[in-house]
Amino acid sequence: MSPEQAEVVALQALAWVVAEDDLRDVFLGASGASVDDLRSRAGDADFQGAVLGFLLMDDQWVIQFCDQHGFSYQTPYEAQQSLPGQGEVHWT
Predict the structure, then answer these.
(1) Phi/psi at 89 (5° precision)
(2) pTM over 0.70, yes/no
(3) Which of 3, 31, 47, 65 has its CB surrounded by the most CB atoms within 10 Å?
(4) Residue 7: predicted pLDDT
(5) Which residues contact 62 (CB under 8 A, 6 or more apart)?
(6) Which residues 6+ apart lie within 8 Å of 37 measured at CB?
(7) Separation CA 52–CA 44 (nearest Å)
(8) 5: how many CB neighbours lie within 10 A of its CB?
(9) What is the dihedral of CA 80, 84, 87, 90, to 10 degrees?
(10) Rg over CA atoms, the chain
(11) CB within 8 A of 47, min separation 6: which ones?
(12) How high is the pLDDT of residue 91?
């Protein structure tokens, strides 16, 4: 997945989280982000990675998001790993 495609998926994930009132509040509480951050940091790769990381914490969230957008269940993980600075660190 290209970084540009990953950014699109991350922005879709952010929109989905924000649209789910209860989930939005959980994300804000867990991340320490404010409502203003949702707007001002939406284009930041680190913030996008955090949104995808949050989504990936619960299989039901992944299933609901992916089903709504027609993605495979692997897409959020692939997107997170494809964002600049977000790939897994391999020490070997």
Answers:
(1) -85, 125
(2) yes
(3) 65
(4) 94
(5) 55, 56, 73, 76
(6) 47
(7) 12
(8) 13
(9) 180
(10) 13
(11) 33, 37, 41
(12) 53
Q: Where does residue 27 fall: left (phi above 0), alpha (psi -120 to 50 degrees), or beta otherwise?
A: alpha
**pLDDT by 10s per residue, the chain, length 92:** 888 999 999 999 999 999 988 899 899 888 888 888 888 998 888 889 999 999 999 999 999 999 999 999 999 999 999 987 765 555 55
Q: Which amino acid is at 9?
A: V
Tokens standing for 72?
């495979």
Place of tokens 């600075």: 85
Distance CA(16)–CA(59), nearest Å, equals 15
Of 3, 12, 23, nearest to 68 by C-alpha is: 12
Nearest alpha carbon to residue 42 among 70, 74, 8: 8
**Hey, is 56 helix, strand or coil?**
coil
